[in-house]
Write a structure and sequence with these properties.
single chain, 195 residues, alpha+beta, six-stranded mixed β-sheet, two-stranded antiparallel ribbon
Length: 195
């Protein structure tokens, strides 16, 4: 699905074969980067998504902002036929100050820019739920740490990985948590359990 080897990509590991699998969003410039995968199980659709990072410069930041708008349009439209959506992955955005170890000094960094945070607010207002924050309103935990400056050891992290759901999934929510002790990369797993 992606054209640039080793650059990006998403996956869904499952014990049960999906009824249908959709690769990409039908938008070539994003699908070439392997950023979206959907698996349908009855009336429930699970998405693995990898939002672009803007940390490499203005061009990629502009690409990220375009992606965010197109992604939202796509999933809002998708929700007309797939009402129960679970959208999990690396969003590359910290939404609120509680989601980042140093909101003041990071206020001008990609991932915590005002326009990214505003997009996240609009996305949530469009009928989606940040399950970790919904079920853990005061908990300050992170899903990503820089490899530099002993960031993980000192817990100077960012919560940029989310399990988002559409409103019709809300009654199914059981728990949402982060596995901080799982060390396999600069990220750790964000987990959502549903009934």
């Amino acid at each position: 699905m992606r054209k640039k080897k080793g650059y990006s990509g998403v996956a869904i590991l499952t014990r049960r074969e999906p009824d249908h699998v959709e690769t990409g969003m039908g938008i070539e410039k994003y699908d070439n980067e392997g950023r979206f995968l959907r698996a349908d199980y009855g009336d429930l659709s699970i998405v693995s998504v990898y939002h672009p990072s803007g940390t490499s410069g203005d061009e990629r930041q502009a690409f990220k902002m375009e992606w965010l708008e197109d992604f939202q349009k796509y999933v809002v439209e998708l929700q007309k036929t797939c009402q129960k959506l679970i959208l999990c992955g690396d969003y590359n955005i910290c939404h609120e100050p509680i989601d980042i170890h140093d909101p003041v000094r990071n206020a001008t960094n990609s991932g915590f820019l005002p326009e990214e945070r505003e997009w996240m607010t609009r996305f949530l207002d469009a009928g989606f739920i940040d399950t970790f924050r919904f079920l853990n309103p005061e908990k300050q935990q992170y899903t990503w740490w820089s490899y530099r400056f002993n960031a993980r050891k000192n817990n100077k992290g960012w919560r940029i990985d989310y399990c988002m759901v559409s409103e019709p999934v809300k009654p199914l929510l059981k728990s949402a948590y982060i596995l901080n002790d799982a060390v396999h990369s600069d990220h750790c797993p964000a987990v959502l359990e549903i009934e």
